[in-house]
Write a structure and sequence with these properties.
Elements lengths: L7 H8 L16 H4 L17 H16 L3 H13 L4 H10 L2 H7 L6 H9 L3 E3 L2 E3 L11 E4 L16 E4 L4 E4 L14 H8 L2
Antiparallel strand pairs: 1-2, 1-3, 3-5, 4-5
């Protein structure tokens, strides 16, 4: 399976924003974005020229892809499915990304990062509607319930769970209440630029 193995903080520095790829480190003073704003590379400089439309589209696509930890081929497939779906393609793309099993596990606070969520799902730690699932990219739908195969994982403290998800402490079960709307996806992403990039 292909995966990114280089330093993750380099990706945050390249995009200039926190992508929260390393869990608690991203929220501490050790985060490179907090300490320094330089870009990766020998000189760490940023061009003074105004970026072209293509450059803006590319950066938005790369930022979103890296945020969710998806490689290019799979991301392109998601865009194709979103463009074929009814309604706004950009919203459909974000909904598909948010409803991935590894992202839902991360949003519920059952892991430190999306990469950690993928690892736990691969190990078969979670049940979907009572069935053991080990596919991180599995798309969930409204009404699906997420549980544990064994001892529950410690949930991140002081976490605000999105409105479209819920967590029952007594039964240790998470529920996808509904498909998230755009205002419920609190990410600084311009999805129209991504669709434009793949529509060239």
């Amino acid at each position: 399976m292909a995966r990114y193995t280089d330093p993750k903080c380099r990706l945050c520095r390249r995009e200039g924003v926190k992508l929260y790829l390393k869990g608690e480190r991203c929220e501490s003073v050790k985060c490179p974005i907090t300490r320094q704003r330089s870009f990766p590379g020998q000189h760490g400089g940023k061009s003074s020229r105004r970026p072209s439309d293509y450059a803006l589209q590319l950066r938005e696509k790369q930022k979103t892809r890296r945020l969710y930890g998806i490689l290019e081929r799979q991301f392109r497939r998601y865009v194709g499915e979103a463009k074929a779906a009814k309604g706004e393609a950009g919203l459909a793309l974000l909904q598909k990304l948010e409803l991935r099993l590894d992202n839902v596990v991360y949003r519920l606070g059952l892991c430190k990062s999306r990469a950690h969520a993928r690892q736990l799902v691969r190990q078969g730690k979670f049940l979907i509607n009572g069935k053991k699932i080990d596919i991180p990219s599995l798309g969930l739908s409204a009404g699906d319930k997420i549980g544990f195969t064994g001892k529950p994982t410690e949930i991140r403290r002081n976490l605000i769970i999105p409105d479209w998800l819920s967590w029952d402490k007594k039964s240790n079960l998470g529920t996808v209440k509904a498909v998230p709307e755009r205002e419920q996806i609190e990410l600084d992403i311009d999805e129209t630029l991504i669709i434009q990039y793949y529509s060239r």
